[in-house]
Every structure is written in structure tokens, then in C-alpha cells.
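Typical record was shown:
=====
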Amino acid sequence: MTMDRWDPFREMLTLREAMDRLFQQSVAGTGQLLHNVRGELVPMDVIERDDAYEVRATLPGVRPEDLEIIVQGERLTVRGQVKSSDEQREENWLMREQRIGTLQRSITLPSPVQSDNAEARLEHGILRLRLPKAQQARPRRIAIGTQGGGSSATEGHGHGSRDHTAEGDRVTEESQESFPASDPPSWTPERT
């Protein structure tokens, strides 16, 4: 029987890694915690650009055919399988730290993406994803128009003037009628 020298610092690092993972998962939400119970956590970096999200995930030992990427709305799931070639053989392992099994990570992006236009590359154990933002999620400038059809906020009526249209009168009339006679509204056109 071989004697193994006990190293308390090695166990402290393992405990610290476990605590870090637990903290990260609790901050990410309970859905994240439930998703990662089945597999090891995949470290990720996510960058937001104007038109897309760029994701880098570390997946050592995962082959492209053993990798699954799922995008549904704002939810991104990366799942990979690490297989060992010598798993079948009976060996007298002295140390086995190489991870085998399932690696998985699910994250929620701030906005939906266009999964049809997504790009993925796996090089040297690093997965690189480019996920274009959905059109409705991209910021757009909206022109301010007036009732006269112009597109400028300064066009038409002067600053601070009101346009009393039939729609405005109808709203005023309906709001006045909705109050009982004993409780008149605090604002009426006569009081301005």
C-alpha cells in the first residue's frame, strides 16, 4: 500500500473552488444551480457589442461532434462530453485529475438573439460564439413627429403649447363624467 503525503493547502484550494462555484451559481439564480447539478461548470466570458454578444467558453478535451449549443430566446446552453480513450481498461490509478463526463453551462443573456445567424468555432479547447442580437433588441433612435406630419420635435407648435384636438376633448369629457358629482376632479379646463 502506498502512502500519500497529506497536503492541507491542496484541500483548502479544492474547498475554495467549491465555495467560489457555489457563490457564482447562487448569484446567477436557482435555474442556473439546477442546470449545473448534472455536469461540471463551463467557464465563460461574455462581451456585449452593439449588434451581437461574443461568448468564449473553455472546453478542454471536447471534440466538435461531442458539443451541443442551444439558444432559445435569451437562454444560451453549452453542453459538451469529454470522453477518455483509456476508460475501458482496468488500471491502478495513482492520480486521476483529468475531467471526464459532461461539461455544461446555461446563462441568460440580456436580450434575445438571432440563432439562425449565430457563428461558432472550437479551436484549442476554446469555443467562440458570435450571437447577433435580435432586431427588436437593438437600440433604435425614434424621430419625434408632430400632428402636422413633421419629424422634428421643434416643428409645428411652440414649446409648451398644447394641441387641443377632438381626441383631447373626448378624454377630458370622459374623465369628468367618470367622477361622481360629489367628488369633482381636481383638474378641469376651467381651472387652468
